[in-house]
Amino acid sequence: MRPWLIVLLGVGCLQAQTTYDLLIQGGHVIDPKNGIDDIRDVAILNGRIVQVAQGLPAEAARTVIDAKGLYVSPGWIDIHVHVYAGTGLRALTGDQSVYPDGFSFRTGVTTMVDAGTAGWRNFPDFKERVIDRARTRVLAFLNICGVGMAPFGENNPADMDPAGAVYVARQYPELIVGFKVAHYDQPDWLDIDRAIEAGKATGLPVMVDFGWTGGDRTIEKLLREKLRPGDIYTHCYSGHRDELLPSGELNPAMWDGRKRGILFDVGHGAGSFYWNIAVPALKAGFRPDTISTDLHTSSMNAGMKDLPNVMSKLLNLGVPLKDVIRMVTWSAAQAIRHPELGSLDVGTEADVTVFALEQGQFGFVDAAGARMDGTQRLRPEVTIRAGRVVWDLNGRASVDWRRFPYKKRERPQRGLTGVSSVGQK
After folding, report:
1. Which end of the chain, N or C, is less packed with Cβ atoms under 10 Å?
2. What is the CATH number of the domain that holds 67?
3. What is the pLDDT of residues 395-411, one digit of tens each?
4. In this structure, are 187 and 332 located in the same domain?
């Protein structure tokens, strides 16, 4: 056989082989980091993004997801959740937290960042109990208090040890993204000062749930003097700390903080997002840098519900869709200083969210129980984590049952104890 014919036959064989594990075809891709806001196909191989382009051939993929009429974005990042569950304590460090996999993928979330539920004393337990067992990527802000959000933990100055927090953060640099303070009810600045001390020692940001205010402890001093560029003020539409003045105007300290490089996060929660604060703030042009849920058992069963619901609230308040997506992808990745996340860069781990933008009549409830009507709502359809479909609302990545290659199911073997193995891995 002539050499040139061998070459041509070889090329033909290569073309006939599968090129992609998964192809998301025909969706409207929004990738803020790369400035993409258009129809594209997204190809995945070996758990990574290998191509984002138009006209990629369906026959080159093992599995094709028809995303026509849908949107495709990097996997959503929720930077404020509480997932240190299973300790048995009646606290956020326990019963009020939720296990991540039960609440992440179905809401389009591929990365969750626990916001200080664990501290430097119990983080190893949190890692073993939850993080290491989750399919969701779980990162964490480490509470400056050693026991985290255990009962009475956050108001114990003796447990606020910057050295201990720094030591643990350096032990787990791939997991800990910063430090967290919350719910402090003393008139001093001990919580903030010690968290910032740890932040300076490690080069990591501090997320602040600014608890008690009064006297010298004011939002003005926090945003104008205490926090540093890159630190995060969560619950920015709570109204609990004079974010809005009695006149109805946005507190100038909020603008001053933004000019200094402080980031502002929604952190909806069960008591930290109110229409009478968010509406005037957004009308004044004060948008959040990131959108997060403050997920826990109370918030998810009240007005917050989940991340797409909170995103939909911002969308109905006039924030363009591409900006809403940026707040839960590239902006969130930058806030936690993980630039390998939040984009569809070729070569990155394939975390992808495919979602619908529904049009209709919807109601959205704030933390007080007040409703606002809206006409748009986001609905996750398919979630992909590290190249694997982990949520598929309408079976878009599945084969019709009439063509599905069913295998004969054998009678399960019983073990020595007589217990059936049905349902066991």
Report:
1. C
2. 2.30.40.10
3. 999 999 999 999 888 87
4. yes
